[in-house]
Specification:
The chain has 75 residues and is of the alpha/beta class. Helices cover 36% and strands 20% of the residues. It is built from two helices and five strands; from the N terminus they run H-E-E-E-H-E-E. The protein has helices at residues 8-19, 48-62; strands spanning 30-33, 39-42, 44-45, 67-69, 72-73. Strands 1-2-4 form a three-stranded mixed β-sheet. Strands 3-5 form a two-stranded parallel sheet. A hairpin with a 5-residue loop joins strand 1 (30-33) and strand 2. The longest helix has 15 residues, at 48-62. The mean pLDDT is 84.
Length: 75
């Protein structure tokens, strides 16, 4: 994925959702919104629950856009 394929403004807006999230472990989640409409979650979380919580948090903001959850669960 090239930088020019990423919508930086939307990416920053969606990442800020996690920066201000009440769950501290989600504050490191990064969001990339591509111009083709796909939204990509990246980063590390400590449980599958956190991975799902991040996905559903963003889904509320993007509606029916494509969402790819590439968060890595680490122990």
């Amino acid at each position: 994925m090239q930088l020019n394929e990423i919508d930086l403004s939307l990416s920053q807006q969606l990442t800020s959702v996690f920066v201000h999230h009440s769950h501290p472990r989600l504050r490191g989640v990064h969001v990339n919104a591509k111009h083709d409409g796909e939204v990509l979650l990246q980063g590390r979380v400590t449980s599958y629950f956190e991975k799902q919580m991040a996905q559903e948090t963003i889904r509320r903001h993007i509606g029916s856009q494509g969402l790819r959850n590439d968060l890595e669960v680490i122990q």
